[in-house]
Amino acid sequence: MSQSKMRDTFVYVVSVFSLLAACSCAAVAGGPPTRGRVHIEGNTIVSDWGTPLRMGCWSLDISNRCFARDELVTAKFCGINGVHVYCELTTENSFGAIGYASQHMDSIVEWCRQESLYVVMTFGGPIRNTNLQKILDIWEFYAPRYADQTHVVYEIKNEGCYETYHCAEPVMQTYRDAYEIIRKHAPETHVLLLSHSNLKGGINSLWEDVDRLSTVVDWSNASFAFHGYAPSAGEQVNMIRELGAKGYAMTCTEFPNSGELVRAYESAGISYAHFEACWGGNRSLGDICAHVKKYGVSWQPDFGDWPQPHVEHLPLWSRDRDWRVQRYGGGGERDGVLVGGRPQGDVRAVYDLTGRLLWHRADGSSIPAALGAGAHLVKYSR
User: Fold this and answer.
1) Average pLDDT score over residue span 160-174
2) What are phi and psi of 207, to 5 degrees?
3) Which helix (H) or strand (E) holds 56?
4) Quick one: pLDDT at residue 72?
């Protein structure tokens, strides 16, 4: 069977599972992972297939309304491979006690798992009106909730540094404390920090803020987010590249409606989240399609054939109808995939049964000769 046919079979199986899923609020996500954890490659985080995250967005913090299930599929086939979710407010004027949006979040996390999409979750409200203790309390609630979901990324706080290049020390300490809470409950989950409202401070200011967190943060599985409201697109690209050369990764999790910025972030090769079609009301998550298409930017999406043919990938376990391949080189039976022989094709990454990355191509190393009985997922590209 050709790779293309096997890929189509995989997409069909995922679609069948998706149609069977309840369209009301789901339980905390479960079942086999369909995406491995993001990892740092170059100057940004990328998916398990090595593709940048190109995300739509949704706000539960303002409207407390979940999008409809089919809106997610519409966005998926417009080149989107994830959703950036503003989960709850950290200000006092929220819709309820901590966890009020958890049922909606459970649905989003589960639907994205079924559709092989990523979720980056954060918490809204301007920092000037934020109860810093609430940031810690909210992560005590949510960090363990999705810790085992390999397609979920945690962004500590929306615009923790608002209209400034240097966060006040109480805010920086809150970042350190929140990071340690997340690591206590979710040691494998990638964490985005800082989320500056702009990059006007220049590369030195960014470097200093990163350095202020480095006594606590392990940057091998953490990186920092920013918002692209300033300075110019060209200046932002230069800063992204310069900081990337120092070994730090950046993701833009919010920017104004601007095709110039989309082109800039594609040029810089970083992951980013659109800010259009985000705020609920009469809007649909699928509205992102019109915004994305008008920019005239082209890339290989993870799914579908717009704006180019999709990235070729083949989860090896999709060969088996019940999502299990039970033979290893020694003939033993375990949940997982056959990795005893040398895989054919361009291998992107190998994961264990929990979705933990064991090896990926960016390491520059050869595929380990023996990955052991825990080896789970092997992804391919053309």
Assistant:
1) 80
2) -60, -40
3) strand 54-59
4) 93
- The CA distance from 160 to 169, in Å, is 11
Evaluate if residue 306 carries a pLDDT over 80: yes
Count of CA atoms in the C-beta half-sphere (13 A) of 47: 26
On whether the CB atoms of residues 357 and 47 are closer than 8 A, the answer is: no
Q: Spell out a b/e string for 264-274, using b for 16 or more CB atoms within 10 Å of the CB, else e.
A: bbbebbbbbbb
pLDDT at 257: 79
> Residues 6 or more apart from 5 whose CB is under 8 A from it?
none
Q: Which residues contact 33 (CB under 8 A, 6 or more apart)?
A: 113, 149, 150, 151, 351, 355, 377
| pLDDT one-digit tens code per residue, 317-328 | 333 322 233 233
276 in Cβ contact with 80 (< 8 Å): no
Fold of 22-294: TIM Barrel (3.20.20)
pLDDT in tens, 48-67: 888 999 999 999 888 788 99
| Mean pLDDT for all residues in the chain | 76
Q: Are 202 and 165 a contacting pair, CB within 8 Å?
A: yes
CA count, 13 A, side-chain hemisphere, 206: 27
Domain ranges of the chain: 22-294, 316-381
CA distance to 87, 88, 97, 123, 143, per residue, from 94 (Å): 11, 7, 8, 11, 19
Distance CA 204, CA 202 (A): 6
The CA distance from 231 to 142, in Å, is: 33
Cα angle 378, 188, 315; round to 5: 15
β-pairing, 191-196 with 152-155?
parallel
258 vs 116: CA distance, rounded Å:
27
Ramachandran bin of 194, using left for φ above 0, alpha for ψ from -120 to 50, beta for the remaining angles: left
Note the pLDDT of residue 349: 58
Asked whether 354 and 346 are in contact (CB, 8 A), the reply is no
**pLDDT the model gives residue 27:** 42
46 versus 196: the higher-pLDDT residue is 46
Give residue 364's pLDDT: 57
